């Protein structure tokens, strides 16, 4: 026993080093478990507060760009209104209870911290639990898909950015409907890779890639990007498609958090069949 | 200078380096994936008389705080602990013939710019190489990770030199 204690004392430096490295690597490999802990993420009260105050200073320099972006989005939404349609006067008017038909609820949030140059990029938003934000809600901007809420504290939330090699999103080709899985490869912040599109699909450069709507997170047909380059893996018979992302992650300012209102119902139902 | 007199200065350094890192430097995104990591300067400039175990503990705490801010739990922690572990060996290999004088610190004003530069580059390199290889793990090619870390080492060194320029006006800081 005495020898053992002497051994520990003599090698305390090396043993402490080993211990601390083991703890760090334990964190790295169990990221799923620990990233869900709010106090170990950027949405904790201290860092959320710091990021919020700092970004509200920086924000003033972006006001012009933010305004232009809002105006653009407004006119885009106006274009989608039914009464703009040429056929609008000819259609019979039906009274619909729009509240009952609502599938998704959107709430706006400001990005208070963001990165694009890491392997695992995250965003921090200035809204949290008390604004109704919950983990696993989708995050989109006016230009397309942004990410998924990872965890939330009282007034802040952390979002896994699409630019995170740990995030996979189900996406499909808008023209042909074939779907695959979209993943970032960790290189350029402008491109992601769509894989799993079968060889008999005919993806063309310039075609739009949108969300599939199969998950309980994102609505259908949210733009992800456009096809930039198509290569085929002869052995496996699947396309490997490079997608030019529609969102410029460097200029992200305001985003919408999407809540699917029947998400719980869908998940419960899917769980039932999983157990079979 | 006694260790206890240095305590307030290092506390200030600690807070300043972490704030600079998470608020300013993390928002500098030059080419897509290069990011200067200035906070390692805190471990680099700790006094020679810092107990070895304290180096490791401080490395762990610094890394963990950076990780929490950046949502990279474990990555910066492991790299900073690794750097803190190697510090005594690196220092002893750079030591003058009759050792380091009592009460001095590993800063340019005590041992000259040339000495500090060599020591600092080696320290930054151990940290960055460790960090980028753990981050990439098996998802990336060896060469691309190596280039990525080399570019980041250069950028970090440049930023540390800029920080030193600011500190020089008052030789008592840093």
User: How much strand content do the residues of chain A show?
Assistant: 25-35%
Secondary structure: helix percent of chain A: 25-40%
What is the percent of helical residues of chain B? 55-70%
Q: How do the helices and strands follow one another from N- to C-terminus of chain A? A: HHHHHEEEEEEEEEEEEH
Which pair of chains has the greatest number of interface residues, and how are they split between the two chains? A-B, 42 and 38 residues
Written description of the protein model:
The complex is a heterodimer of chains A (276) and B (174). With 276 residues, chain A is α+β, with helices and mostly antiparallel strands. Chain A folds into three domains: 2-35; 42-79 and 103-164 and 252-271, Beta Barrel (Thrombin, subunit H); 168-249, Beta Barrel (Thrombin, subunit H). Chain A contains six helices and twelve strands. Chain A has helices at residues 2-10, 12-29, 31-35, 45-58, 63-79, 263-274, and strands spanning 104-114, 120-125, 138-141, 144-152, 157-164, 168-173, 179-183, 191-198, 208-211, 223-233, 238-245, 254-260. In chain A, strand 1 and strand 2 form a beta hairpin. The radius of gyration of chain A is 23 Å and the shape is globular. With 174 residues, chain B is an all-alpha fold. Chain B has one domain (3-168). Chain B has seven helices and no strands. Chain B is globular. Chain B starts with a helix and ends in a 6-residue tail after the last helix. The model of chain B has no long low-confidence stretch (mean pLDDT 84).
